[in-house]
Amino acid sequence: MASPLDHDPKFPHYWSEHPRDKVFGANTNAFSSRFSGFSICHPIYHENTMLLATRHAIYSAAVSTEETATFMLLPSWNKRMTTNPYASLCRKNPHMCKFLGTIPSDQLQYAKVPFWNNVQIPLPKHSWELKIIAL
Predict the structure, then answer these.
(1) Same domain, 5 and 50
(2) How far apart are CA 74 and CA 102, in angstroms?
(3) 52 lies in the same domain as 108
(4) What percent of the chain has pLDDT above 70?
(5) What is the pLDDT of residues 96-130, one digit of tens each?
(6) Distances, alpha carbon 135 to alpha carbons 7, 33, 112, 113, 130, in Å
């Protein structure tokens, strides 16, 4: 769930929602196989995609015969996460989901893009917190 521009090449696999990214080695359907082992999931900020990713991580862990841990990085549009569908799903499955912590909005920063050659495009400040959830 990345683009070729923000994919970390230290990770052997990455997924993109865009079929054109196959040229860069992307898998294009993150839900075509179960999450297994240790993984990090930071899906695009689309409510349905975040809900599907959370549901898929819960399902993957529930049916796995190996140790599985997916660490989700999900935005908190409001401080208590009371209206987010993915947070509601986590609260309904406390035996599978643990809220580990929060990264405050003022601590979130975009990485420096090395190939912009001193031409930085100003990006918006984060106005949301990022929740870390283990499934």
Answers:
(1) no
(2) 10
(3) yes
(4) 78
(5) 999 999 999 888 877 766 666 666 666 777 788 88
(6) 22, 16, 30, 31, 16
Domain count, the chain: 2
pTM of structure: 0.76
Residue 116 CB burial class (10 angstroms; 0-12, 13-18, ≥19): exposed
For 42-96, the pLDDT digits (tens) are 888 888 888 999 999 999 999 988 898 999 999 887 666 566 888 889 989 999 9
Structure tokens at 134: 């283990």
Residue whose entry in the numeric block shows the structure tokens 């987010």: 84
- Cα angle 8, 14, 16; round to 5: 115
Q: Which residue blocks in 2-124 are alpha helix, DSSP H? A: 47-63, 85-92
